[in-house]
Amino acid sequence: MIDETRNKILHVFEKHSGYARTQDVKSEGIHHKYLQELVEEGTILKIKHGLYSLPEIYSPATLHEALLTVPDGIICMGTALAYYELTTWNPPEIHIALPRGRKITLPDYPPIKLYHVSADFFALGQTEIEAESGQSITIYNRERVVCDALRFRNKIGIDIMKEVLREYLQSEYRNLNALNSYARKLRIESVLNQYLDVLL
Fold first, then answer.
1. Could you tell me which residues come within 8 angstroms of residue 110 by beta carbon, excluding any fewer than 6 positions away?
2. Pick from 53, 58, 62, 54: which is nearest to 133 by CA?
3. Between 20 and 30 A from 18 (CA), which of 63, 131, 167, 200?
4. Considering the entire predicted model, what is its pTM?
5. Is the pLDDT of residue 61 over 80?
6. Where are the alpha helices (DSSP H) in 85-157?
7. What is the DSSP letter of 13?
């Protein structure tokens, strides 16, 4: 593949905040076979049929754009864990929490996976981070997402949950008092202590 073609394709991704559909590339007069070449060399990721992304999709700017499509949403689960560098798990969709019962129509991209959360727990651990542009992004804090990894360990996988706990415990940001407080509020204190006994 010549550099000019590569640069044209990557420009398409830049225009769409790190995502592109096959038809976006074809509309620029570029054959879709080059997308497969970029996947094989690791330059882009295939998310699903016809949709691709750059490997780094967790920039605050991209998260801000995703939240614009989900009013009152909060970045959660795998996306928050990856943002805090607590896991090597790299989910292709941006994970956003939404109050249970809220219905919303999602765009083609960025790809979003919704987690419907009960009113009792929805705002717990909500915090703000700032994009370089000054935009504010709503995300759950470290302790909340670690607890969520424990709560949903059977869905995300025990190995991922253990990796999250290990990374958190080795982090300079760890705060066991805060972690226990969140675990108590989320009613998983006994589960947390069970794993802490093994890992500490």
1. 17, 18, 19, 53, 57, 62, 65, 66, 93, 94
2. 62
3. 167
4. 0.76
5. no
6. 119-122, 142-151, 153-156
7. H
The domain boundary, picked from 53, 78, 94, lies at 53
CA-based nearest residue to 140, from 109, 172, 179: 179
The DSSP H or E segment spanning 184 is helix 176-185
CA pseudo-torsion sign 157, 120, 128, 101: positive
CA angle at 92 for the pair 151 and 103, rounded to the nearest 5°: 65
Tell me: do 47 and 64 sit in the same domain: no
* Residue carrying structure tokens 């000019």: 4
The tally of domains found in the chain comes to 2
Whether 77 and 113 map to the same domain: the answer is yes
pLDDT in tens, 104-116: 888 777 788 999 9
Pair (65, 41) in one structural domain: no
pLDDT digits (tens, 9 = 90+) for 41-52: 888 888 778 888
